[in-house]
Amino acid sequence: MPDSKVVAVEDLATSEAKWVKLKRCRYQDPTGKERLWEFAERPTRSSSGIDAVAILALLRSESDAFPPSTIIIEQFRPPINRYVVGLISEGETAEDTAIRELEEETGFKARGVVETSPLLVCDPGMTNANMKLVTVDVPFPEKLEMPAQKLDPGEFITARIVELAKLQAELKEYEMKGFVVDARLDHLAAGFELAKKLRQPK
């Protein structure tokens, strides 16, 4: 199957946009001076107040058959490229969404939620879009097996298993291949590497 690619880019009137709206706000700085700011707004926010969820799946063996691992995905995004993020459906919690999206996009079934982050923003100078990071537990009695994905029509996602200890090295390989790495995934890998270095005796 050929790779996806952008074939055209054109201006879009806000009145025609379904997923993103352009806004201009007036605010006062600490001196009382009024200023203007332009930003993008996601109009699909549910009553939960959360736009999206990012998922950190912890794959672990209950018999030490394989080292602690996680899942990263390769998915074409017209502006860039990105990893597992699911929009919150009306009536769902961030935890419900994480478990549902993980199974749909990777086939893995989480046993439960390890923790949920506070409400987060990724680019507050550009958009008011927010998200939560949900860490889920995916245990295996013995060896690690790759399940079948349950993708919706029009979804083209490649899921890959990566050892946590090798995550940063894997992301560097992706950069060399021309991929763009999601900042949240890179921050996770950098934090894991920093924790390893801090544990080393001086």
Give your account of this protein's structure.
By secondary structure, this protein is of the alpha+beta class. The chain is built from 3 helices and 10 strands; from the N terminus they run ββββββαββββαα. The protein has helices at 94-106, 167-176, 183-199, and strands at residues 21-28, 34-41, 52-61, 69-76, 81-82, 85-87, 112-116, 120-121, 130-140, 157-163. Strands 3, 6, 7, 8 and 9 form a 5-stranded mixed sheet that branches. A hairpin with a 5-residue loop joins strand 1 and strand 2. The model is unreliable at 81-88 (pLDDT under 50).
Q: Tags for this entry?
A:
alpha+beta, five-stranded mixed beta sheet, 20% helix, 32% strand
What's the tally of helices? 3
Integer average pLDDT: 86
The separation of the N and C termini measures 51 Å
Which percent range describes the beta-strand content? 25-35%
Unreliable spans are: 81-88
Task: Describe the sheet with the most strands.
Answer: 5 strands, mixed
Shape designation: globular
> Could you give the order of the helices and strands?
EEEEEEHEEEEHH
Structural class: alpha+beta
User: What is the total tally of β strands?
Assistant: 10
Helix content: 10-25%
Question: What is the CA-atom radius of gyration, in angstroms?
Answer: 19 Å
